[in-house]
Amino acid sequence: GGSVATVASSSPGVAAVATVPPGKGGARAGTAGSLPGAGLLGTGGPLCLSQPWGFAVMLGHKVGGGVVVEDQPDVSAVLSAYNQQGDPTLYEEYYSGLKNFIECSLDCHRAELSQLFYPLFVHMYLELVYNQHESEAKSFFERFHGDQECYYQDDLRVLSSLTKKEHMKGNETMLDFRTSKFVLRISRDSYQLLKRHLQEKQNNQIWNIVQEHLYIDIFDGMPRSKQQIDAMVGSLAGEAKREANKAKVFFGLLKEPEFDVPLDDEDEEGENEEGKPKKKKPKKDSVGSKSKKQDPNAPPQNRIPLPELKDSDKLDKVMNMKEAARRVRLGPECLPSICFYTFLNAYQGLTAVDITDDSSMIVGGFADSTVRVWSVTPKKLRSVKTAADLSLIDKESDDVLERIMDEKTASELKILYGHSGPVYGTSFSPDRNYLLSCSEDGTVRLWSLQTFTCLVGYKGHNYPVWDTQFSPYGYYFVSGGHDRVARLWATDHYQPLRIFAGHLADVTCTRFHPNSNYIATGSADRTIRLWDVLNGNCVRIFTGHKGPIHSLAFSPNGRFLATGATDGRVLLWDIGHGLMVGELKGHTDTIYALRFSRDGEILASGSMDNTVRLWDAVKAFEDLETDDFTTATGHINLPENSQDLLLGTYMTKSTPVVHLHFTRRNLLLAAGAYSSQ
Q1: Transmembrane region positions (predicted)?
Q2: Is the distance from CB of 545 to CB of 563 less than 8 angstroms?
């Protein structure tokens, strides 16, 4: 694993707003007001804001090397960027002059240049506040804030509470504006038009802000249409620079280890035996024969060290292959049955759910800080016998795994106590021996499913940890939290192996790529990033969601990523080309769960709107336009075909959907807690 943690932060940050992720069933919302002000990059001063929500303006260091030493800039030096002020009384005139110019420009340029409105508005307002022109700032804000795009409303609400220079100095909000650049992607023609206009008008104030605070990514070719721009904007830092998505990503799958499958007919009895642990989703097309060839897009087999297969894992792979042989082939004509696990009377507040890969156990994380594990097969959960009893067992007997279990402890529910705050994420290990949970108390805990006790508490995040997940190969796991970074851990290390820094707000969800070489993180800064486990680099930045991201799912072939957010949209991404390739509209509330069927034919999404929706994933990803031109310019043309792709909508009575899981035979399991509104 290597124990050197490198921090790589490649993003230019931006002045903007991080709000705490909206409540999973209300539990998260409660933590917002109580969070301390200083985040990972904070100056340590408390937040002096009149608002109850956690707030911070973000930064990202531009760094050449891999390791970043976070130096704390002197706040007054940081703010000096705002010294070069113009005449405060003319700010409204400058802004409305530019606004008239853009609104009167040709249609083809207008959409592109309109992207300037929001970042200019923010910086001009902050410049007025910094230079203590409070009344001008107030009138500037009141006059123009209504013109901004609706998806910036939350940011503007926080901005409106910054009305005095002291507000800017007294906390970490103003951290590092010299390197905070809002990224805009504009065609050369539109850019020339803007430059000419500002220079003719001698409008230096706006030109200074453009130079100082914006990063304009200029491309040659046709300007983009309003639809193309709307699809990609909306994040805290504007769009991603084009080169952010140019690095090569090995999105192929690793070759499955080869071993003989004993063919026998006694499959019926003893399916899902406890003594046969298994790997999470051996990602393969139907049966083992196909994956003998090395996938050309796959990483080298030994690119990162993965744990050896134990005998029990091999047994389990065999079980899995037998199950796969009976798997239902899904498609528009053959939709999965859905089995919904409703948590009734969950007055403790259900905040997280996970289901083992073989669908034998389900775990719930609760706001009362407990973790509860249920068996969903007739087989009860049992603990290992005490040491004294174990010493009496014949170690050589065939059923030794059965004999070590203590029948007296058998029950269908085990409650794990240890956290001191709501549990926001849970994850079973692929071999079903361990369980991870992460909590508002800042820790990730590893529990044994043999003894149902806590083995380790991993402390690295000082703030709430929103999500955690085991690697599909076990051993490694990832966590992400309010401190805006994700961490990669190994179960046998107290310290993280990697720290992934670059998001401008909370990391709200984390997912391993099926080949375990990459990790996707979704954030309240409204972007998704893909990180390379080997070196900690950020290799993709996806912008386009208009709200915090709450769910991620990789397709089983490793080529695509689906993401869901508070904006109720599911976006689809081609990882190799670094492009958005689809948008699924239909949900009316936050999407908390996404899952592809075992062979990737169907994407299921679950939402706070109390529905599960099924989408035709094959059709969504076929005949994609990923030619060189599209990749070079980022001109994406999303088909408006959500209705053709939607295969079904299934309402619950009053249960928000928190988790989805396809069994090995493609039965869809869903879970959530009934809420009596």
Answers
A1: none
A2: yes
DSSP string, 515-534: TSSEEEEEETTSEEEEEETT
Q: CA dist 76 to 37, 80, 169, 302, Å?
A: 19, 6, 8, 49
Listing DSSP states for 269-315 in one string gives TTTT-TT----S----SSSGGGGGSPPTTSPPTTSS--PPPPHHHHH
| Residue 84 binned pLDDT confidence (cut-offs 50, 70, 90) | low
Q: Are 572 and 620 in contact (CB under 8 A)?
A: yes
Element (H, E) at 101: helix 91-104
- Residue spans of the domains in the chain: they are 86-239, 338-623+662-672
Spell out the residues 6+ positions from residue 135 whose beta carbon is closer than 8 angstroms to its own: none
Return d(Cα 542, Cα 562) in angstroms, integer: 11
Using a pLDDT cut of 90, give the percent of the chain over it. 41
Residue 612: phi and psi, rounded to 5, are -110, 130
State the DSSP H helix or E strand holding residue 541, giving kind and residue range, or none if neither: strand 538-543
Residue 29, pLDDT score: 35
Class of domain 86-239: mainly alpha
Task: For residue 671, give every residue at least 6 positions away whose Cβ sits within 8 Å of its Cβ, in sequence order, or none.
Answer: 340, 341, 342, 343, 353, 355, 362, 364, 657, 658, 659, 660, 661
Phi-psi region of 138 (alpha: psi -120 to 50; beta: other; left: phi over 0): alpha
Helix, strand, coil shares, percent, the chain, to 5: 25, 25, 50
More confident residue, 542 or 90: 542
Tell the residue number behind the tokens 């050197």, with chain if given.
4
Secondary structure (DSSP) of 35-86: S-S--TT--SPPP--SSSS----------SSS--------HHHHHGGG-S--
Of 219 and 402, which is predicted with more confidence?
219
- What are the distances in angstroms from CA 77 to CA 81, 176, 617, 654? 8, 9, 51, 53
What pLDDT, in 10s, does the model give residues 275-321?
A: 444 444 444 444 444 445 678 889 998 899 998 888 888 888 888 88
Whether the pLDDT of residue 179 is over 50: the answer is: no
Contacts of 577 (CB under 8 A, 6+ apart): 626, 630, 631
Q: Which two tokens stand for residue 165?
A: 């220079």
Tell me if the pTM is above 0.90: no
What phi and psi, each to the nearest 5 degrees, are found at residue 180?
-75, 115
**Contacts of residue 144, Cβ cutoff 8 Å, sequence gap at least 6:** 92, 95, 96, 99, 121
For 633, phi then psi, to 5°, come to -100, -20
Reported as a pLDDT band with limits 50, 70 and 90, residue 157 is confident
Among 191-205, 342-356, 549-563, the range scoring the smallest mean pLDDT is 191-205
The C-alpha atoms of residue 608 and residue 658 are separated, in whole angstroms, by 8
As a whole number of angstroms, the distance between CA 616 and CA 101 comes to 44
pLDDT of 368-404, one tens digit each?
999 999 999 988 888 888 877 877 777 777 777 778 8
| Phi, psi for 101 (deg, rounded to 5) | -60, -45
Interatomic CA distance for residues 461 and 471, integer angstroms? 19
User: What number does CATH give the domain 338-623+662-672?
Assistant: 2.130.10.10
Residues near 41 by Cβ (< 8 Å), separated by ≥ 6?
58, 59, 70, 172, 175, 484
